[in-house]
């Protein structure tokens, strides 16, 4: 599966089937960064389940760059893109998506890869951008024409829709907002139900997210824009001197206002009714994945399980991480109900039997001075070597795991209203009771075996059933309380009346995409980079703009490790341009040239204007001189012809005698 063209260099992995284009990318690497020893590899994925095993292979291979070709067999490569784009292992490893058409760009951007490039002849950015974030010291400053200006444009953030209720919508995205803020959001909700793009933010959070974004939003749907009133309707009446006419005009203006308000209210009620019916009709009681499970394993062993199915086919939300972040931000962000952790997970699966040997040695108190040998097991040289590694390090690793568990539980206790079940696999060195008592956390469970999918799927089902039963009990208690308080008013109240109705949108549906815009000031532009400023404090990620073309912007550090700088009260950001076609690249260049050469053109225009002004003056002076000369000539001629009409005597004018 692996095809290498160079050895022992910086590993660049391509996963796909377009060998011709991949060769073009390789040539660009070699030409643009010829001082680096590159090692190129080509893999492929045959089916959706193989995408999961390929993910493990990528972890094992540990490349410095990964190119994922999404232009063919989306069903095979898209799941792999989801794993690569979300896993902490690839935080510092650029993952680049390649597509051949731009129409589905928003769908591919949802993978949260570092870049998405549209295949074409120009491949400079395909290589320069990833290298600039992974190996910044190897990158020289771009020597492209720089357009400087200060133009107000719009920055787009692609949101994802989680679910819709009769009165609200739940979305996730990367833009900070404030509760109460009115926001115009482009959605795919039926316009006959929700004609207005106006929404009011009710709540914003940075936890319990489904997608790999920064924020979860709950918006109240405004449905219909409020009526607009012209102040001149009553102002005109103020200038009317006739009291009767003035009162009539005021009355007419008030009636018009009342009619518009009534029309708006009627339209609002109609739209609410339509939308509510649509939500009720669209709901699927089995679509909600009430339980979220997070698997943490350096080698993601569940992907090798023969019973493993595509991730989306499970009735619970299945999330994976090869490692947790240092401050456990991902725990609060995902808020899993069950956290399944493989302890001492740095041990590769191929060395698990060696690990078991060392565990038994440690139980027996074997010393390093006389380690046992295992001639009957026929250990390979690699296994023998790893056996020594484990003998030297395993006890320290076990102690480190206990410290890790303690830090994790400490962080969980800091989160309000959150108490997940923690299942520790390969926990042979500590008992459940000891850990529960040591960390004062009764929801710790242990398993001495290596992590297995079946052990968790059954637990997830039980957890879901308990959650639903608990919710039903809470609803019943609320109904009983209301009926006790006012039996007559609440006599017909049922669980269906007070249960919030939610239509969960499939992530494969176009309706799961939404878009919000904010104003920014674009300051500089090259054919590969852009800088802009905004009052918003943004997070790392990819945004979009339609100026000067529809393009994506991957935010990177501005300077000296700073993600942004503050100038004139605004945050200034730098972005690397991607997701554009060759024709759009040419349009960007033309715009830059127009701006870049504008001062020169102005100078030339000024010089031309000065020249023509001088030229006109010369012509005018010349014309004046000619007119003056003509006048002088006329004056002279006038003197010579002063006696015109009279005979002019000559010296020979005397009479000559005849012969």
Give the arrangement of secondary structure elements.
Layout: E1 3-4, E2 10-15, H1 19-32, E3 38-43, H2 48-61, E4 65-69, H3 74-86, E5 95-99, H4 105-109, E6 115-118, H5 124-134, E7 147-164, E8 168-173, E9 182-186, E10 198-205, E11 215-221, H6 232-238, H7 243-282, E12 292-296, E13 317-321, H8 329-334, E14 338-342, H9 352-364, H10 381-413, E15 421-425, H11 432-439, E16 444-447, H12 453-485, H13 495-498, E17 503-504, E18 513-525, E19 529-534, E20 542-545, E21 551-556, E22 565-567, E23 570-578, H14 582-596, H15 598-640
Parallel strand pairs: 2-3, 2-4, 4-5, 5-6, 12-13, 12-14, 14-15, 15-16
Antiparallel strand pairs: 1-3, 7-8, 7-17, 7-18, 7-20, 8-11, 9-10, 9-18, 10-11, 18-19, 19-23, 20-21, 21-23, 22-23
Helix pairs in contact: 1-5, 2-3, 6-7, 9-10
Uncertain runs = 1-6, 639-659
Oligomer: single chain
Tally of helical runs:
15
| Number of DSSP E strands | 23
Provide the β-strand percentage band. Answer: 15-25%
Distance between the termini: 138 Å
Classify the helix fraction into a percent range.
Answer: 25-40%
Tell me, briefly, the overall form. Answer: flat
Gyration radius, in Å: 38 Å
Largest sheet: 12 strands, antiparallel
Describe the protein's architecture and organization.
The longest helix is centred in the C-terminal third of the chain and has 43 residues, at 598-640. The chain is of the alpha/beta class. The chain has helices at residues 19-32, 48-61, 74-86, 105-109, 124-134, 232-238, 243-282, 329-334, 352-364, 381-413, 432-439, 453-485, 495-498, 582-596, 598-640; strands spanning 3-4, 10-15, 38-43, 65-69, 95-99, 115-118, 147-164, 168-173, 182-186, 198-205, 215-221, 292-296, 317-321, 338-342, 421-425, 444-447, 503-504, 513-525, 529-534, 542-545, 551-556, 565-567, 570-578. The strands form three sheets. Strands 7, 8, 9, 10, 11, 17, 18, 19, 20, 21, 22 and 23 form a twelve-stranded antiparallel β-sheet that branches. The chain has a six-stranded mixed β-sheet with strand order 1-3-2-4-5-6, sandwiched between helices. Helices cover 39% and strands 21% of the residues.
């Amino acid at each position: 599966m692996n095809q290498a063209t160079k050895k022992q260099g910086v590993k660049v992995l391509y996963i796909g089937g377009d060998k011709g284009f991949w060769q073009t990318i390789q040539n660009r690497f070699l030409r643009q960064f010829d001082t680096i020893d590159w090692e190129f590899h080509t893999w492929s994925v045959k089916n959706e389940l193989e995408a999961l095993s390929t993910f493990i292979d990528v972890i094992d291979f540990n490349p410095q760059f990964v190119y994922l070709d999404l232009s063919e067999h989306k069903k095979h490569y898209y799941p792999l893109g989801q794993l690569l784009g979300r896993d902490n292992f690839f935080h510092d490893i650029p993952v680049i998506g390649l597509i051949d058409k731009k129409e589905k760009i928003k769908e591919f951007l949802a993978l949260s890869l570092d870049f998405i490039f549209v295949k074409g002849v120009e491949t400079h950015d395909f290589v320069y951008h990833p290298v600039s974030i992974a190996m910044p010291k190897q990158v020289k400053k771009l020597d492209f024409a720089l357009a400087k200006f200060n133009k107000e444009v719009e920055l787009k953030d692609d949101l994802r829709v989680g679910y819709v209720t009769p009165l609200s919508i739940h979305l996730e995205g990367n833009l900070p907002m404030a509760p109460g803020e009115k926001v115009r959001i482009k959605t795919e909700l039926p316009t006959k139900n929700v004609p207005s793009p106006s929404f009011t933010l009710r709540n914003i959070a940075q936890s319990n997210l489904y997608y790999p974004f920064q924020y979860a939003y709950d918006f109240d749907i405004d449905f219909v824009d409020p009526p607009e009133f012209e102040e001149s309707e009553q102002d005109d009446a103020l200038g009317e001197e006739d009291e009767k006419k003035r009162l009539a005009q005021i009355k007419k203006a008030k009636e018009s206002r009342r009619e518009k308000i009534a029309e708006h209210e009627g339209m609002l009620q109609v739209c609410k009714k339509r939308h509510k019916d649509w939500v009720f009709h669209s709901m699927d009681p089995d679509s909600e994945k009430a339980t979220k499970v997070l698997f943490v394993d350096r080698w993601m062993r569940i992907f090798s399980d023969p019973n493993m199915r595509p991730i989306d086919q499970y009735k619970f939300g299945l999330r994976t991480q090869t490692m947790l972040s240092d401050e456990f931000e991902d725990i609060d962000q995902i808020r899993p109900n069950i956290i399944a952790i493989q302890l001492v997970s740095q041990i590769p699966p191929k060395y698990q039997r060696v690990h078991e040997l060392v565990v038994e040695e440690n139980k027996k108190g074997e010393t390093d001075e006389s380690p046992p040998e295992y001639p009957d097991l026929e250990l390979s040289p690699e296994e023998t070597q790893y056996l020594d590694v484990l003998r030297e390090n395993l006890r320290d690793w076990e102690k480190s795991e206990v410290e890790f568990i303690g830090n994790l539980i400490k962080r969980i206790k800091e989160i309000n209203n959150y108490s997940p079940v923690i299942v520790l696999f390969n926990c042979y060195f500590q008992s459940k009771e000891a850990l529960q008592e040591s960390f004062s956390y009764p929801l710790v469970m242990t398993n001495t075996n290596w992590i297995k999918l079946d052990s968790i799927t059954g637990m997830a089902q039980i957890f879901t059933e308990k959650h639903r039963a608990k919710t039903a009990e809470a609803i019943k208690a609320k109904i009983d309380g209301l009926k006790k308080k006012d039996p007559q008013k609440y006599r017909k109240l049922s669980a269906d009346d007070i249960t919030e109705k939610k239509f969960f949108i499939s992530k494969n549906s176009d309706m799961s995409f939404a878009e919000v815009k904010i104003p920014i000031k674009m300051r500089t532009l090259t054919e590969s980079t852009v800088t802009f400023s905004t009052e918003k404090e943004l997070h790392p990620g990819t945004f979009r703009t339609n100026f000067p073309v529809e393009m994506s912007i991957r935010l990177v550090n501005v300077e000296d490790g700073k993600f942004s700088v503050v100038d004139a009260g605004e945050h200034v950001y730098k972005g690397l341009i991607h997701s554009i076609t060759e024709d759009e690249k040419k349009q960007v260049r033309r715009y830059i040239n127009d701006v870049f050469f504008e001062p020169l053109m102005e100078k030339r225009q000024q010089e031309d204007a000065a020249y023509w002004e001088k030229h006109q003056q010369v012509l005018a002076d010349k014309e004046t001189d000619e007119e003056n000369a003509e006048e002088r000539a006329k004056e002279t001629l006038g003197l010579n012809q002063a006696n015109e009409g009279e005979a002019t005597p000559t010296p020979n004018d005397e009479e000559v005698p005849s012969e």
